[in-house]
Design brief:
The protein contains ten helices and ten strands. The chain has one domain: TIM Barrel. By secondary structure, the chain is of the alpha/beta class. The protein binds adenosine-2'-5'-diphosphate (A2P). Adenosine-2'-5'-diphosphate binds next to α9. Belongs to the aldo/keto reductase family. InterPro entries: AKR, Aldo/ket_reductase_CS, NAD(P)_OxRdtase_dom_sf, NADP_OxRdtase_dom. This is Diketogulonate reductase-like aldo/keto reductase. It holds the Pfam family Aldo_ket_red.
Amino acid sequence: MTFPLNAPALAQVVAANGALIPRIGLGTWQSTHDEGVRAVRAALDAGYRHIDTAARYENEQAVGQALSVCGVPRDEVFVTTKVWHTELRAADFRRAAEASVARLGLDHVDLLLVHWPNPDVSLEETIGALNDAQRRGLTRHIGVSNFPVALLDRAVALSPLPLVANQCEYHPYLDQAKLLAACSRHGMALISHSPLGSGKLLADPVIADMARLHGKQPAQIILRWLIQQPGVAAVPKSSNPVRIGENLAVFDFELDAASMARIGALARADGRVSKPAWHPEWDTPDALHNPLPAAQP
Ligand code: A2P
């Protein structure tokens, strides 16, 4: 992957087991059809070089269409897609990965992720299929998504090729210290999905206060807090061109240690926003800075 020298925002990458992952990417969940095409085009025009999609988002064709007309050379954009958790047996995985790459209109993606773990399929089989996809050139790098520490450790142990990222929910309301430590131990990036807590964090009074102090938007404070941490990238979703631009403009200011700690102290027991029925058993934080009061008997 190459980066134009005159674009400092683009040079902000996480290096992880041989992959260079731009710290800010465009999340595209719920951006479909023309809206998806417009969002990805707006992002690429604004300078994004990292686009995050998934078979499940039903927008790979839209993402591919935007990539094909944007004029940005293919090798300058880091494209991630994901295989859904019902497709994790080897033959299904292979078909699903091939179909994703074809829908994108590409000959390979940059990162292929197992979207969610599935306890009904052996992890060995799935990780084998993931490795196979890389060996066959369908993707430059491989990784997982929504894997808690114990599963991540097993996946790493089962994978002959390096896993470069675990994409998980991460934002100031959700303590992910254990997962960050595990990713760091494995040389992997933690890519934050739902970095704005699906929008929930934007009204937080502490975030609003920091935004005022720094003359920034609340979303920029949250994203800066994330990408200022070693090994962390983020894929905020927006389909609004102004907000898409705003979310990339986080490389011209810094949060000091006290501000980082103040934002980190917002973590709470009910901070998780993504809770689908098929979620694995999540890691529990060691101690919350501001645990909710215990329920009264
Ligand atoms: P929209 O697409 O209308 O901009 P997350 O990435 O945590 O899932 O958050 C996505 C949500 O946050 C979407 O509802 C998105 O709405 C909104 N959003 C994204 N960027 C911003 C921003 N800079 N300011 C306000 N809301 C934003």
